[in-house]
Amino acid sequence: MRRTPAKDHSATTSPPVPYLVASTGSAPRHRRAGRAVAGAAHGVAAPEGTALPGVAPRTVDADVPAAVGEMLEALLAPRLARAGALDALFAGELAGRVARFTRDGGKRTRSQLLWWSMRACGGEDTATATAALRIGAALELLQTCALVHDDVMDGSVLRRGRPALHTDLRDRCDGLASPEGAARFGEAAAVLAGDLALVWADDVVAGTELDPWTAAVVREVWADLRTEMVAGQFLDLRGQLTGARSPQQALRAAHLKSALYSVQRPLSLGAAVAGADGRTLRALSSAGRCVGMAFQLRDDLDDAFGDPRHTGKGCGGDVREGKPTYLAASAVARARALGDTKALAVLERALGDTDLTERGLDEVREVLVRTGARAAVEAKIGRLVARGLRHFDGAGALPDAQAARRLRGLLAAQATSRAPDHPSPAPAAAGSGAAGGGR
Prior knowledge:
By secondary structure, the chain is an all-alpha fold. It has 17 helices and four strands. Helix 5 runs antiparallel to helix 9 and helix 13 crosses helix 16. The relative contact order is 0.12.
């Protein structure tokens, strides 16, 4: 196994993150029956993965999120039992919340990308399908870790239309401590909850039986994914602290925090589990890098312009938190180029204002439209998706053509808006400005 740098740097302006390819032309396909029952060796009453005995991949194809959910149930049950044996309060207050948060996950997009990548690359036996479902379930647990920690760092009170985990833990302490003490407890306990989800995710990957070549690739991709996610979050936080508004830095942070984690690495994991050759791994990795960037840019637009009834969280969170998004950086750069001092004043006043009113947010939306930042990001999304699909097509004829079509469609859908548009002001003439006092 060796690393080769990405040769197409056009998805971002910063140096690419390396990705894995096989040192040989293809991976060995020696699979052992019952590869996903490693938990039995640890004395678990119900061996992990046995909730789906003998399930054919084509059966899973009909409803991948449901199959991942069933695998999660099988994996979480013994872990919750162990937590209960340690301490009932810990099991009920923390471990149980981690399990519920993960079970009630969103569309399971990452695990779907992994599954269809595996299927497109020729994974067609039960052992391979079980391994893919296990690693898909691990991705869902890793997503729990990321979201719970992200909500704490951002001070978000809602997640998926419900109280964020740290908010829920805080509210459960009502009457037991001062408001400050309860808030501190909620945040600290949520950090532990995210840590627990990460531990469980790592355990699931480590307990998945794979042949030596596949195991080596999966372990390294998994290790890279976790480090990249932390690096991207750190750059995001540092950008908020410094107020940096560089489009290049914003793309770099988005690449590490979201593009790799949300699309590129799930594709690589699925291809590796199926034993894909080096050319296929490279093509899928490049496709995932481009589409993953488009995914993050769409998320930035949805945060500013999406309807909270569909996003499940408050609108304008990135603006109020002063996040160094590519959208905000583009607006600042364009306002400067246009000499639009009024637009710059609105952005300077609003970005990072935690008390920004809805009227103030409308002013920001108007600036995003008027400076052309919104249109520019939309255009970039379109270019990234088109480039990603060209990379995908460059993989050549994948072993399962029908699954390849499903995967291609799933990739194309990643950059579509996941939230109907918030009514936004019509663009005004450049330099006309917006009313001040957006607090």
